[in-house]
Amino acid sequence: MYQLSRLKNGLIIATAEMPHMTSVSVGIWVRVGGRYEPAEINGVSHFIEHMLFKGTRKRSAKEISQSVEGIGGYLNAFTGEESTCFYSKACHQRFENLIEVLMDMFLHSTFDRHELEKERGVIKEELAMYLDQPHQHVQELLSETLWPDHPLGRPLTGSEKTIDLLARAQLLGYQKENYTAASAFVIAAGNLRHEKVVKAVVGYAHEFLPGKRPVFRPVDEQQRELRVRLFTRATAQMQIALGIRTCSRHDERRFALRLLNTLLGDNMSSRLFQVLREDHGLAYSIHSGLSYFDDVGTLIISAGLDTDKLPQALKLIVREVRRFRDGAPTPREMRQARDYLIGQIDLGLENTESQMMWLGDQLLGYDKIIQPGEVKRRLCDVRAGQVRHVAGEFFRSERLNLAVVSPLKSIPGLASMLKL
């Protein structure tokens, strides 16, 4: 169902044909995100993302949204650490409308000075909104702790200082340098034919600037000791985020790590959820998740707690983490974790938007399309001993990073609580 074409200028077009669906989802992806940015223009990718919605040579900001919403569809975008995506979804009969609006935004945005200044204020409000949410704030602090003095440790939105200093010329220059045929992908999924998508995109291909593939700064700093970051603010609940350095998305251990994460804290059947919430009633929210980048990765355990429950919660978290090092999961646990992950892949690919996202993630992450069946096969090949092995490699004190947002000014003995 997946097809791929590369135009002469380097622009890549990929499709997932789903003839049984009513909708189509179309995205323009760019191989550039927050980690590509120099410190002085931190937030520039996210700012550009916003500005592409604020008017083109032929459409105002309102007309952009009306062009898609007025045909029963929707339009959105996101900025990540290693990519930016602009996408839309509507009935398959409206495919030409969607691709035309997206191309107009991508190629013809004017970066009007008045709109730019308004959006500067909007982005600062977005930053303030995240900082007002302790569960979001703690994740920003954890990133700074995991990747000190590195672009991965900076907020995707930028800071108030960099947002204030970003000038129109810098936005346009960064867009011209990075939004090129060499770094762009057009991806569509739904009730469509690959040839139709290619024909539509070819009509715009000559407007894509030539350029080189963007390059990011790799993570070369090696962590050698536990790191703790505390932030004191008046909150009703303490938020903690425990980050463990793991491996990149190219590492073969990632499949065993996915099963380990599922068993640890990915769902309500996981050990952390059962122990901290069900058995001890310490937290309403307790969860673990994985983040993969081109050269590094993390496993993050997040929880919201009463401040007086932190010692007991950390004790139990450390105990469950150690259990994976000390013994392999049972056959039943392995079977349930595999079935859960495979089920989540299947359910997650039921709609056109998720298929479009799958293609984008594969192409930008691996420069090829990895079939879902291949991922499921690799997960089925993981053995319990491999799960224990990756736990032994990654669950070590010198790989731990803890961020805490709470009313407390200090928390004595944190290092000893986290000793693995």
Summarize the structure in words.
- The chain has two domains: 2-205, Cytochrome Bc1 Complex, Chain A, domain 1 (2-Layer Sandwich), CATH 3.30.830; 227-417, 2-Layer Sandwich (Cytochrome Bc1 Complex, Chain A, domain 1).
- Helix content is 45%, strand content 19%.
- It contains 16 helices and eleven strands.
- The strands form two sheets. The protein has a six-stranded mixed sheet with strand order 1-2-6-3-5-4, with helices on both faces.
- Strand 4 (74-79) and strand 5 form a beta hairpin.
- Helix 9 (254-266) packs across helix 12.
- It is globular.
Brief synopsis:
With 420 residues, the protein is of the alpha+beta class.
Low-confidence stretches: none
Radius of gyration: 23 Å
Tell me the strand order in the biggest sheet: 1-2-6-3-5-4
The description of the largest β-sheet is: 6 strands, mixed
User: Which H/E pattern describes the elements?
Assistant: EEEHHEEHHHHHEHEEHHEEHHHHHEH
Question: Care to count the β-strands?
Answer: 11
Distance between the termini: 46 Å
Under the CATH scheme, which class of the largest domain?
Answer: Alpha Beta
